[in-house]
Amino acid sequence: MASTPPVARKVLHELAEHGDVRLDSYYWLRDDSRSDPAVLAHLRAENDYTAALMSDVKHIEDEIFAEIRGRIKEDDTDVPLRRGQYYYYERTLTGKEYVQHCRRLVPTDGHITVFDAMPVGLDAPDEHIVLDENVKAEGHDYYSIGAFKVSPSGRLVAYGEDTNGDEAYTLYVIDAESGEYVGQPLKGVTSDIEWAGDDYLVYITMDSLHRPDKVCLHKLGSDQSNDMCLYHEKDDIFSLGLQASESKQYLFVRSESKSTSFIFHLDISKQKKQLEVLTPRLYGIDTAASHRGNHFYIKRRSEDFYNSELVACPSNNVAEATVLLPHRESVKIQDFQLFENHIAVYERENGLPKITVYGLPASGEALGKLQGGREIDFVDPAYAVEPEESQFHSSIIRFRYSSMKTPPSVFDYDMDSGVSVLKKINTVLGGFDSSNYVSERKWAAASDGTQIPISIIYRKDLVQLDGSDPMLLSGFGSYEICIDPSFSGSIFSLVDRGFVHAIAHVRGGGEMGRKWYEDGKLLKKKNTFTDFIACAEHLMKSKYCSKEKLCISGKSAGGLLMGAVLNMRPDLFKAAIVGVPFVDALTTMLDPTIPLTTAEWEEWGDPREEEYYYYMKSYSPVDNVKAQEYPHILVTAGLNDPCVMYSEPAKFVAKLRELKRDDNLLLFKCEVGAGHNSKSGRFEKLREDAFSYTCLLKALGMTYTA
């Protein structure tokens, strides 16, 4: 194995825009076919070099991998969901990478309560394995199921299969009992598929740039070439999404950009399947919809109502809207879930998620402003809450809760009585005891005075909090995505070695509402980077760590954040994990032939406009690598990544190797059998965590056995 850093050859390539010429000596590393021998040889050389430099700590990597895997109850079953005449659930098996999709008959048609449980004894109905992903994955380096949809009768199952990580799925329909294929597979679909009765499927396909652009209707037994296109979105900044209402009476097709969305609906009960407009295309207006009784319920965001309002309109008169929940400056409506007699509203306030449930009048009665809501209580200072599939014709809402020290927990909550029942808390093996850990929430002042929330966990018997403790600080800060402090079984291999782990909830994310996002995008993008730096400085000032022991990590757009802060303040950090990073931002945003580019202009700006060009040039990581000292750095990529092309991190590493003025580690690992979300197997993913953590320990000189 090579112990000398690979040196990418330099081939001069000029990129000119607005009279400005950039010289890109590593442009040749981009190969859309992923087949150029010179490119593949360079990637292999990087992988070989990384393996060589990490060979002396391979035993540490193996030890950490064993620890992480050892916390998992490998043979496990999730909480069954009662759907029609069956309970549906997923099972994992010892030593197996993938899940089994199972079902079991419901013995009786009794009323669903929070105490409902699937019988499993000797007298219980037999279990039936509908689909075993382990069998399907045989012979594939990558395997992922993007959707698993049971037909209304329960007789058929449609599922999407990706076998190379590019997120282009092949849709199969099988008989739920025999497992035999029904009809021919449908190629090139997204993970959004829905049944429109037992004989029809609605699905979405993508254009050559991986943009979901067509919604199609397929009749079982017919050829895909005969499928009807229900709608073609020709505007390349918009992408299509599809979902069914909780009532299962309507399908909704949503065309959305980063700032605007509009909705079509399809009445499943009608013999003629066609889309009708529910909300029109109006720039800056964003809508999401569902259905109950004779009303559509719509979450609507606009420039004035930036945190959204919730309205309802009669299904026969969509222009007549009643406000159910008005816009509030301090509370963002994130989502909602409809039931026969209730609505559950998922909101964010002060950076934390919350759920409020309301009773609804009987179907057909007049609707008014929601009142008398009951908020569900949570105990941790910082936590994550996610909706789970629930049953429309019940009073039970199911949700998943976790925190940095509380394992994922599934609750059923009775919206009539307020009774909450813990259905399952994930078993964490290896001697895990949540009482050994402290979870905190702190605030750092940004350069403009804005208070930035930080979520923190550490093991109270291992840290000194005097500045001597190592820390891993993570961040993301883009797309209005909320990186809530959920449970990670992997991170305890660092925390149990005395690390403090923190998440900086910087602007550009959605944690503090819509304005939080808007203040970290376009011409305010640098707030994301300076917020992260402010959080790092605050944590050092508060004695959680020092710059000699501060490690940082981020993936995808979080990798852009890592690249930017490494260029801006390399002196602050000891080591960095830069995962599948969007680091060649300016070049990518100037090239509309690259997948997702045009749709991203509303996030980063269109650099064909001079103001955006120079602003992006001032922070785009590849364009700002300098002749300076950098911390230890690990960069990762997936060869088949459809979101961030492998060439971006490859170019970033090549330029760092050319210019950096230090002897610190610079490692690049490009996985051949991986997409944007790394490898597909549940244990393979753990191996990546183990490798990353080992790199940090090596950088810190902590490569002793725990």
Automatic annotation (TrEMBL):
Gene3D superfamilies: alpha/beta hydrolase, Prolyl oligopeptidase, N-terminal domain. Residues 5-423 form the Peptidase S9A N-terminal domain. GO terms for molecular function: serine-type endopeptidase activity. It catalyses: Hydrolysis of Pro-|-Xaa >> Ala-|-Xaa in oligopeptides. Residues 485-701 form the Peptidase S9 prolyl oligopeptidase catalytic domain. Keywords: Hydrolase, Protease, Serine protease. GO terms for cellular component: cytosol. InterPro entries: AB_hydrolase_fold (IPR029058), Pept_S9A_N (IPR023302), Peptidase_S9_cat (IPR001375), Peptidase_S9A (IPR002470), Serine_Peptidase_S9A (IPR051543). Belongs to the peptidase S9A family. This is Prolyl endopeptidase. It comes from Aegilops tauschii subsp. strangulata.
